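Why run this: before we spend reagent on co-expression, it is cheaper to look at a predicted model of the complex and decide which construct boundaries make sense. The entries below are exactly what would go into the expression plan.
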Amino acid sequence: MPLRELQYPTEPYSKVNRLKDRADYALEAIHRIVNTCPLLHVSFQAPGSPFPAVLPMIGQMGSFDRPSADLGDVLDLYLHGYVSSRIMNTARSSSSSSASETSTETSTEESKEGIPITIAATHLDGLVLSLTPNSHSYNYRSAILFGHASLVTSVPEKLYAMELITNSVVPQRWAHTRVPPNAAEMQSTSVLKVRITTGSAKIREGGPHDERGDLEDRGVVERVWTGVVPVWSVLGTPVVGGYNEVGEVPGYLEEWRGERNREGEEFARGVAKD
Amino acid sequence: MPLRELQYPTEPYSKVNRLKDRADYALEAIHRIVNTCPLLHVSFQAPGSPFPAVLPMIGQMGSFDRPSADLGDVLDLYLHGYVSSRIMNTARSSSSSSASETSTETSTEESKEGIPITIAATHLDGLVLSLTPNSHSYNYRSAILFGHASLVTSVPEKLYAMELITNSVVPQRWAHTRVPPNAAEMQSTSVLKVRITTGSAKIREGGPHDERGDLEDRGVVERVWTGVVPVWSVLGTPVVGGYNEVGEVPGYLEEWRGERNREGEEFARGVAKD
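The model came back. Tokens follow.
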């Protein structure tokens, strides 16, 4: 246990420039936001495209070399490659270097470490309603990671990542399905590993804040309702599939669902107050 | 009313390559996903950075020139610039061209039309639990827009966008706050307008699907629960702020909240079945 928690270095591209008191560079805070986010937004510059590509993907941070690592340790991000054929193609084509499309520096970096990508994980926790539109805000937790993505080729590491990602959707789900994946499934599923260069988080909690001028205006304060509408994501009663033959919704699913719903509400309500 | 609904052109960078039957290029479908999404993920290539920037932002599509335009019409995207100082700086610095950092083509494009950005809007609607980890999926609605962003300088257009964005957080909120913004607020708030080049949506609905091999395996089908856990975002009971003096939570907020919660649940449950 280090005396101080590990922090990511602040690079010009990762530094929080606005409302710096909301910034957090601690690995644990950042990794927690990422690992509780059911959808990540992954961005990379596809060669020949005038716009960056952005893909919603499922991912999870972990350590294949040291599976017992906790959230505050150095971790890799594993992304489920099913929807990422464009990244895969970019990763593949980047090794057969095309210097005309990217700068020399970038090509070298790509073939050595994988393609540079940025990952965003964001939770919306509340609508902060204040006296003026200008001071309206959200309560939120937002993390950004920067790193280099490459295809996982080792079978044990791929299986580790597949289990990690499946269990991030529903804890214990992997062991309750038909595993291990067969040869065709291993072939058709790709997993990307992102070695993280750095990252940052930005968090807003608490009630509304307004300027003194409005707070002292009786007419405004007496007319405009101010407070927070807590927001969280709910997991509803499971809907049975067409070919399901299991009589009851399993306990591992129902217990986790109840817990997640309670925690979601508690958290959003908890951060709604100053 | 055109005979066929308007569609965005499919460019190499916007085309859905995988699971094409989930793709939708209709303006209405795409704009609806964007305008119901409380957080957008905005990506652009900052000069000198090895990684694309990704920022969570609030935005809304509309038409200042024709405010009565509906979701199926050609619209612009307005982004609240509060958190976008890096885009703003990039937009500003890109006009004082620095050819060393970007290709000639890009520089010309930037100074003419604004900086190229990509916007992602994603709704998670359900966890699709099937027999094997490989066939697990999400129900989701995802939209991507590509366009060029520039700062809104016209005061009436900026006010139009500020009202549009405020009312997207809570309908009718603008008129129930202290408006119009004063000179200092107009000065400190930036609004970005994105002229859309093209876009696409990808939508997954329905129950689980599995391979014949697993469906015919009695042991597997009798052991693994399959179905969908519907997911939606809930707006909880409002938490009164520290300086609120309005006795009751206003009707426009409570009615909308109830409606949004009902619709969210109905939608997620509705798409959970085949």
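Residues 123 and 141 of chain A are 5 Å apart (CA to CA). Residues 20-228 of chain A form a domain with the Pnp Oxidase; Chain A fold (CATH 2.30.110.10). Bring this page to Monday's planning discussion.
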